[in-house]
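Morning, I've got a small favour to ask if you have a moment. You're getting the sequence in one-letter code plus the fold written as tokens. Thanks so much in advance, here it is:

===
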Amino acid sequence: MGVYLNGKSAYRLFQEDYSLDYYIDKSGMLRELVPLLEMKKSMEGRDSSEKGRGPKYVAITRPRRFGKTVMANMIAAYFGKGVDSHGEFDTLRVSEYPWYRKHLNQHNVIHIVFNEMPWDCTSYAQYIGRIQMTLLDDLIMAYPNARIRETDAVWDALTKVYEYCDEEKFIFVLDEWDYIYHQGFVTEGEKAGFTRFLNNLLKDKAYVELAYMTGILPIAKYSSGSELNMFLEYSMATRTKYNEYFGFSEEEVDDLYQRYLKKEPHPRVTRQGLEDWYDGYQTADGRRLYNPRSVVGALNDNQLGNYWTSSGPYDEVFYYISANVDAVKDDVALLVAGNPVPARVQEYASVSTELKTRDEIFSAMVVYGFLNYANGYVSIPNKELMDKFAEVVQREPSLGNVYKLAKESGRMLAATKAGDVETMTELMEYAHNTHSPLLVYNDEAELASIIRWVYLKALDYYRIEREDKAGVGYVDFIFYPFAKNDDAIILELKVNHTAQEAIQQIKERQYALRFEGKFGENPEYTGRILAVGIAYHKSDEKKRHECRVEVLRESLE
């Protein structure tokens, strides 16, 4: 046993995850990997060019905090000889497979976490030297008869083990492989050197039984030639295989929520809240995914909030927008208004060192998890990310009218609650006159996009639903307050009709029943219920707007 070779760390970390209240069994992933180990029998008799590449090289690319490290630890803990892990795996799904015992703790595993640095690291030589010497020390201790020298390259040492020790093989589990490429002290030449290091370590090596590698960015960014082309790469947006093992599915979140209700004596998180805040990612095969870090954080803390976006600086979102503000600011307006934007998401472009085009910018934001990509469109996936975008547009004057309108949105919400229809009308006209060219929609669709903007600040206090079922029809917008004693808002839009007609429709179709406890839908809301009618007279040359607010129910407190 050693630090990298058949070490204990991966198992101990897996053990910690396994013991958590909200652990989800993803051991089915091993069903995908074990057949790759057994392919060597079918490869016998083929030429060497075929044997050295192909399915036994797996690269998983996902945004950070989507379970890559948890999975890597589990894989190393299952295969590795260093620790007996049957106590945990006997209770998991993998134990049902016929090959379970055959491979449990029966393989040499080299597990390297590439985001670990030497003390006070300031150079690539220190970084790669630590990895080289640590693995070399492990091999010298484990294989004293392999004639390994301290001056050997690690691939030479591994080749000696294979040749002198009965064709000993190794499973490589390499986590966060692309970490070093993001470090400011690493030159472009050194990045290329690291790519060659991985090539020399893994490609066309008889001692490689399986290579499983995780990272954020596509391999193509760092391997323009053939260095790492033996890997089959699986991203969330473009490949379907392995998608079920990263992120939480709807059914898994249902299971976690039931555990939460049993565990928490005073639950403050709703199932709807988890969906609003953390759902919205879509895989290449159309599956919806929740952000796993955020779901577990909310259930553990008994509170909805920003768990994933808070793990990185605010500047990350704005970094991509600021790369070309003029090209993307109109699209940002559409995205924050809740409208998907067409984009050509390309993995290669997403990691360009200088993001220049809108498609490169959006591609990068998809790769890092800031945007969802589906059917040729990008969108903001959930409230957690919407809050981050709203923060950006309210803090960055470089976004021009987008920034100015966002700053005014707080006044719109305050005016609505106060019934100040003059201010509401003024802000609606300002929004339409300055923002409408950015939103090429007609009739109520255009007006609905403007509503998202003038009430942007309301996202801090409300879950806003578009065309929600209420009473005997569908209302344009319902604002569900996070504080149950806050004002609930029912908002109806009209084009070439009056605001009073909008109010009358809210009453006649009984949209307020959505908040009436006697009908069993939302009895917990105790604040006022406000009916808001907003009309836009399209035929009027002045683009005249009209607003009206009525109290349908006074506060119950």
The radius of gyration is 28 Å. Residues 44-53 have pLDDT under 50 and may be disordered. The CA atoms of residues 218 and 347 lie 6 Å apart. The chain has four domains: 9-245, 250-310, 312-399, 401-553.
